[in-house]
Specification:
The complex is a heterotrimer. In chain A, 34% of the residues lie in helices and 9% in strands. By secondary structure, chain A is of the alpha+beta class. Chain A has a two-stranded antiparallel sheet with strand order 2-3. In chain A, strand 2 and strand 3 form a beta hairpin. Chain A starts with 6 loop residues before the first helix and ends in a 6-residue tail after the last strand. Chain B is an alpha/beta fold. Chain B contains 15 helices and 11 strands. In chain B, helix 5 runs parallel beside helix 6, helix 7 packs antiparallel against helix 15 and helix 9 crosses helix 11. By secondary structure, chain C is an alpha+beta fold. Chain C folds into 3 domains: 284 residues, no CATH class; 115 residues, no CATH class; 59 residues, Arc Repressor Mutant, subunit A, CATH 1.10.10. In chain C, helix 5 packs across helix 6 and helix 6 crosses helix 8. The chains are: A alpha+beta, B alpha/beta, C alpha+beta. Chains in contact: A-B, A-C, B-C. At the A-B interface, helix 1, helix 2 and strand 3 of A face helix 9, helix 10, helix 11, helix 12 and helix 13 of B. Strand 3 of chain A pairs antiparallel with strand 9 of chain C.
Chain lengths: 100, 479, 476
């Protein structure tokens, strides 16, 4: 920890999040994130070597399943009714360029 | 006749049952009130005015027959716009009802509209909404708290009878406290999250925001229960919460954690909460000094776990299936980037960036895993504390409502306003805020009561006893 | 220089449950686009996953059949990346605590037996399907496949030739077929295979530059793709070219591999535990019960066939490669004593028919009873072996019972010696010249005479009897 976050990292993280930041935003977020992260660094004060992580607050909950029983689907019309672009019963998206 | 909009649900229920009042009468008073006031308060993002005859035809046997309720805008209502107060979900009409909505409908509640909130519930002030801020009914210059600020303000301003909020780090309790109403975050797993648009899945819970404790018990009784659509919903029987509404705290052991009464806690808030603790003591409760040593790490822990989960939960808002899509784009990736950059507000972006960073390669162990381990420590603190006491009482918020704009440029100080509410989410505990005083400026102050998992009943008992012996909940803002 | 190839395979297997992994939508193949969708598999805001118990049970079954250890605490993780076939822009998968790990599959390549280690078997959800209309600058998405339960079965890099990869897949498919957890159809995409392949000078312990090979749509395609890729890499090293770590696609038309993207930007999937699902624990007793209830698997069946039916190991291996085929053999063997004869027919003409028709034994439509009846007709000399082959073909072609084919065609063999004697006499008197040749020592002339007799009887005469009677008459 205790690495402060620089603009290059913020830019990289923005790309991972599919966000773009202009120079001013980059400046602002870098500063704010650095301040937050330096506050968060407090956690280093605690020794957690032999502590099990908590993913769920109610730790006793295990093996929650559903039966393999069909439920009605909502159908293409309902599925597509909020879509910004469709063609036939498909969702339509811009072209996908690999390797980008 | 009394102004119907200012009555509680349990009182209106009696009146409806006796035949003195019809649901349409309540709605008509409420909509008059909204028309007169909501231009100032801005608690609602959308109102539904059901047809009077239709409203009067509701299931009379239902536990909430004919009672109007306002829903936070992050809970899905079939075919009705649900946007999380974000541009990215513009015009989104879910093809399904959240489980809590199904339960409300089944018990005859009338859905009267959607309330404002911080965008995707990211905030403690209701200022990050794409619709603009909600105002605190006690002082229109001030924030109502957040993120369920619209729900809390609507209840406080008598613009609704009941409201649902959601609470990830205090989003029900803090606005309830700042608006002088009752807000309950149930135990994690007590209420189904199916249909609640996720902020941080391991912390989110839906809960009631009401005018008094009895209404909170009534509403929780309706929305609680196991749901096979939510793997994290716990199959524990729902008690009849009405039976916990007893005016008696004799013998109850109330823990007061020293770590909550520290620097940063406003003197007036401290005095009010200490006064309230004395009231409980005078009523026969046993006050126990306890320690929750990892309290100071709660905010750090939360601001890793919550944004990390949020960054993943919010990845789906990409312009493919619903919501906003950028008008022009070169290709798929360009569409993602433009859509998301246009659609999310600043706070959402900030949290997505923070969360993505904490999960990214090389940082996971230092941040996310570390936070999960500290989360264990925080849970253990409570496990230990509940050996010595039945309830824990603390302030809900370190200060009363602050001014609009005051903390907008300083996210860290905004985050720290959740310092007392966050631990309950990390530990999955039930916690309620009830009015316990007023500041010199006549701003409400709330007290938080926490209990062991699934022990909402003991919270109701203490809160009800306190409320029945005090007058704070009867105060109304002058609007 | 002498090079060796190092291959690891990653198989994705669609499980044949009724419903998807985390919602109740149907998994039926070939339905209209987006018709089998709901808020959960579309990843709509507010929806939550709940695990299909059957998918989980299938996964445990496969893991145990592949000799894997079951994880004490099984959890799911989110694999985060943006792609339009992924409705939530993350995939529910398993990262550091997969359902099972450390297993193996024994293969036999030719006479050699080899153990291929299984690194892990884990459960995840499938993605939707993208369509790219030709000549258009957009794509279309169908989420019917999205959320189907998928098993990922990953080997260690233990395969050292394309043949071994082929044999491994064949064996894996055979085992999966026995478990009845998937239809394993590569054409339908219910079984998909990617490969990691590298080459290195023999004796070198460090791995060479790895290429991920995708888009192979059949077992044969896997073999051909790997063969091409192995040669390409060796040639590149020979030419002093630098190999790059990349993903390449097998082009089935051109029979080459082409670069898809170089991994210049390492993917960062930001795995973290799926908070919407709780952990899963399978206790030891349940594991042992599932293990005990596993069906007899190919190897055990092979051993039993050798012991019980006296088959060669080779025959037993072939017969047990497919669960239905093995079952068919056993059904026949219950009512027909000579197991070797059944094996010969199954592995000969019948398998040839299955191959030409690209059909399983069930689709062929020939019942076990029908085949046994046919074999019994040969034994009783009601028909000749040669006729039986024709009958078999006809029966498969027309989906009729072999006994009925025999009857309809009037194919029953003539084994009545007086009738045969009549025909023999006619031919002898007609072909006086050939008879004379024979008597003058041209022994081969008898073949012509037999041919003539068979022609007269339209092939129905019992060849043994014809031979006997003809020789007797010529010797007179």
């Amino acid at each position: 920890m205790s690495k402060t976050i620089d603009k290059t990292t913020v830019k990289h993280v923005a790309h991972l999040s599919r966000l773009e930041l202009n120079d001013k935003e980059l400046e602002t977020y870098s500063g704010q994130l650095a301040a937050i992260l330096s506050y968060i660094d407090k956690l280093n004060e605690i020794d957690t070597k032999d502590v099990a992580p908590t993913s769920h607050a109610i730790a006793s909950l295990k093996n929650v399943f559903r039966k393999d029983v069909l439920k009605p689907s909502i159908g293409a019309k309902e599925s597509l009714k909020n879509a910004p672009a469709t063609e036939g019963d498909f969702f339509k998206v811009p072209q996908i360029i690999e390797g980008k | 006749m009394e102004k119907l909009q200012s009555l509680t649900a349990h009182r209106l229920k009696e009146l409806i049952e006796k035949g003195d009042v019809r649901p349409s009468n309540i709605l008509s008073d409420l909509f008059d009130r909204i028309k007169a006031l909501d231009g100032k308060v801005k608690a609602f993002v959308r109102v539904n005015k059901p047809d009077a005859a239709e409203a009067d035809r509701v299931n009379k046997a239902g536990k909430l027959a004919g009672i109007p309720i306002t829903i936070k805008d992050n809970i899905c209502v079939k075919d009705e716009e649900t946007t999380c107060a974000s541009k990215i979900l513009a015009d989104f009409k879910p093809p399904y009802d959240a489980t809590v909505i199904k339960k409300l409908r089944a018990e005859g509640a009338i859905l009267m509209g959607k309330s404002n909130m911080d965008e995707f519930a990211f905030g403690s002030s209701c200022e990050t909404s794409c619709y603009g801020p909600t105002k605190n009914p006690w002082d229109l210059e001030r924030i109502p708290g957040g993120s369920s600020g619209g729900s809390a303000a609507a209840v406080a301003a008598d613009e609704t009878i009941l409201a649902l909020g959601s609470d990830t780090g205090g989003s029900i309790r803090q606005p309830a406290s700042l608006c002088g109403v009752v807000g309950l975050k149930p135990t994690y797993g007590r209420v189904s999250r199916y249909g609640l648009i996720a902020f941080a899945s391991s912390l989110d819970q839906i809960g009631p925001i009401t005018k008094d404790v009895e209404d909170a018990a009534l509403l929780l009784g309706v929305i609680a229960g196991h749901d096979e659509m939510d793997s994290t919903s716990v199959d524990v029987p729902v008690p009849d919460y009405k039976r916990s509404l007893v005016k008696d705290v004799r013998g109850l052991r109330i823990g007061v954690p020293k770590e909550y009464f520290i620097k940063g806690l406003d003197k007036e808030v401290e005095d009010s909460v200490r006064g309230a603790i004395n009231v409980l003591k005078d009523l026969g409760a046993k006050i126990v000094d306890i320690s929750l040593p990892h309290t100071e790490y709660a905010v750090s822990t939360y601001y890793i776990i919550a944004p990390a989960e949020a960054s993943s939960n919010l990845a789906r808002f990409d312009g493919v299936q619903y919501g906003h899509r950028a008008k022009t784009s070169k290709d798929m990736i360009d569409m993602y980037i433009k859509t998301r950059s246009e659609g999310f507000g600043n706070e959402a972006k900030r949290r997505i960036l923070l969360g993505t960073y904490c999960l990214s390669s090389g940082y996971y162990d230092a941040y996310y895993l570390k936070a999960q381990k500290v989360r264990t420590r925080i849970r253990e603190d409570f496990d230990k504390a509940f050996g010595a006491c039945d309830l824990v009482v603390t302030p809900t918020s370190p200060t009363a409502a602050f001014k609009i704009g005051e903390k907008m440029d300083d996210p860290l100080s905004m985050y720290l306003s959740d310092i007392y509410t966050i631990p309950a989410n990390l530990a999955g505990l039930p916690a309620m805020s009830i009015p316990c005083g007023f500041s010199k400026n006549s701003l409400p102050i709330g007290m938080q009561i926490l209990a062991k998992p699934f022990d909402e009943e003991t919270i109701f008992r203490a809160a009800y006893t306190f409320e029945q012996n005090t007058e704070f909940h009867k105060q109304k803002p002058k609007l | 220089m002498n090079y060796e190839t190092v291959i690891g395979l990653e198989v994705h297997l669609q499980l044949s449950t009724n419903t998807k992994a985390f919602c109740g939508c149907s998994t039926k193949f070939g339905q209209p686009p987006n018709s089998q969708t709901c808020p959960v598999c579309l990843g709509f805001p507010g929806s939550l996953p709940v695990l299909n118990e059957e998918a989980f049970n299938y996964a445990i079954k496969v893991a145990l059949a592949l000799n894997c250890k079951i994880q004490d605490l099984i959890k799911f993780d989110r694999k985060n990346y943006y792609y339009p076939d992924l409705p939530k822009n993350f995939q529910i998968s398993q990262y550091d605590m997969p359902l099972s790990y450390d297993g193996f599959v024994d293969i036999s390549s030719g006479a050699k037996r080899k153990r291929i280690r299984i690194k892990r078997v884990h459960l995840e959800e499938d993605a939707g399907k993208l369509m790219h209309p030709a000549g258009e600058n957009y794509s279309l998405v169908d989420y019917n496949r999205g959320g189907m339960p998928l098993l990922e079965i990953v080997t260690e890099p233990d395969l050292s030739s394309p043949e071994e990869a082929y044999d491994y897949l064949t064996k894996l498919k055979s085992i999966l077929g026995y478990l009845k957890v998937s239809d394993c159809d590569m054409e339908k995409g219910s079984l998909r295979c990617d490969a990691n392949i590298s080459v290195r000078p023999r004796g070198e312990t460090k791995l060479g530059t790895k290429v991920e090979l995708k888009n192979m749509n059949s077992f044969k395609g896997v073999k051909l793709g790997l063969e091409y890729e192995s040669k390409r890499q060796v040639a590149a090293i020979g030419d002093n070219e630098k190999l790059v770590q990349e993903t390449r696609l097998w082009d089935v038309e051109k029979n080459i591999t082409v670069s898809m993207r170089s991994k210049e930007e390492a993917q960062d999937y930001r795995y973290f535990p799926e908070p919407d699902l709780v952990p899963f624990v399978v206790d030891k007793i349940t594991i042992e019960k599932v293990r005990k209830d596993l069906p007899e698997l190919p190897e055990a069946k092979t051993d039993r066939f050798v012991k019980e039916f006296g088959l060669s190991e080779y025959d037993a291996n072939v017969l047990t490669s497919d669960v239905d085929f093995a079952g068919y053999f056993e059904t026949c063997a219950r009512s027909y004593k000579n197991a070797k004869t059944i094996a010969n027919w199954l592995m000969g003409d019948i398998m040839a028919q299955m191959n030409t028709r690209n059909a399983g034994i069930k689709e062929l439509g020939l019942t076990a009873d029908g085949l046994v009846a046919l074999l019994k007709m040969i034994d009783s000399q009601a028909i000749s072996g040669k006729m039986a082959k024709e009958v078999l073909l006809e029966a498969i072609e027309t989906k009729k019972d072999p006994a009925i084919v025999v009857k309809e065609k009037g194919l029953s063999q003539i084994s009545d010696s007086s009738k045969i004697e009549e025909v023999v006499s006619v031919v002898i008197s007609r072909e006086a010249k050939t008879v004379a040749d024979y008597k003058n020592g041209k022994k081969a002339a008898i073949t012509f005479l037999i041919g003539q007799i068979m022609k007269e009887t339209r092939g129905k005469a019992n060849p043994g009897l014809v031979n006997e009677i003809l020789k007797k008459k010529l010797g007179e």
